[in-house]
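Provenance and format

Records in this collection were gathered into a single text stream. Each protein contributes a sequence line and a token line. The two records reproduced below are adjacent in the stream.
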Amino acid sequence: MTYRDFVDDVMVALGMIHDDSLWSRDNILLNTIYQENLLVGQDISRTIGLSGDGVSSTNKRQVVPVPVTQVECSDEWSWEHAYFDLPSKVYDLPFDGGITMIRYAVGCGCESSVMGATFSATTLERLSLMKNLPYQSPRPDQPYYARYKSLNDKDRVGLFGISSLVTKLLVGVYYAPRFDTLDMNTDMRIDPHRLADLKRLVLTMSVWPLGIPQERHKNDGRDFEPGQVVNTRPIISVNDPILNSNLTQS
């Protein structure tokens, strides 16, 4: 199912007509992407926890080559390093699990003796502590990566210990769809059996903009006409059980 098909289905369920200017296709798409990311992130986290290595979720993972930019020592950085920018947002998974692997790519410029090196995830704070430790310090055969936000608000991945000759890397990542670049004719990321859960969440969010309160003068209902039908709205919970079911905690 494409995003356009799903959004149109929600609009029909809401009984929308041509003059429903309060709730447009873009509004529904925004909420659809938000809720879809929560459900897909939940599914990936669960399968990673069950398999231990995320093998069950490789159908949602993309492996892409990324260009590497080198950075020299400066007042901001006390050592040389490299980085690449993620071209899209990633699913919010535990322990920065949105990035599953980083490897040297064939023809990237590194020595053949370190081609099989594993990039280990860390933080900028830990790197400062490891810098002078001989067995943990970053080096070409023991590289590290750390995620951070750049000054222009890009989702950046810093690379530490790699050679200055390296020009590209191979990255495995769980990319999440972005509202501002999404083509509505593309297929949705969510598994088909979760579409019912997704539709329920999106329709629940629609209660707020479409729920117009009835004009009331007395809380006890004495201002109602005889036989008047009162349309009550479902209770909305910020802790919906759909988003908290069958989760495996690491």
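Adjacent record:
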Amino acid sequence: MAERKTRRTGTIRALGRRLEVAGGEVMKAWRTQAKRPDRVGDLSYHGLELAHAGAKLAARSLSRLEEATQPPRRTARHDPHEPAHPARHAPPAPPPARHRPAPRPQEPEARAS
């Protein structure tokens, strides 16, 4: 299915912002609930600890992945149009052109006697 440009790009950006704000509000409510001195607060506190540990592990793994996928440094080339690895041998010669065989000379017709 081919992608089409639509006029909804502003809507998609707005949706992203709304999700970000809603996520911030959820986290704020969760942290407020974790301050409660009862079992709900304890449960919320331990849930936040688990979420924090998971986010920390993910961030560490992603930073390692970022370092591992860093492309190596290259030296600058003098001519950007020059190929990186020049050919070591001359390119092969093109195959010889095919010709049709020369037509056979026709024999003179036998005369009827």
